[in-house]
Design brief:
This protein is mainly β. The chain is about 0% helix and about 55% strand.
Amino acid sequence: MILNEQTDTWGPYGYDKDIIRFSVPVKTPANFVETLSIAFVPQQLGVILIIGWEKTYVEVPITIRK
């Protein structure tokens, strides 16, 4: 996963604007995901960001500090 501060472009550009890069396990969904899908699943201390497309998805836990 790459979090980049530049929001007006996509693809392999602007590496100098990367805020963070990290690895997460890639999983296979039970069902085919036709279109790129993004969801937030509420948790007690934050959310889990789920990004899925076709035969792949990732889960990124996000902790919200108060």
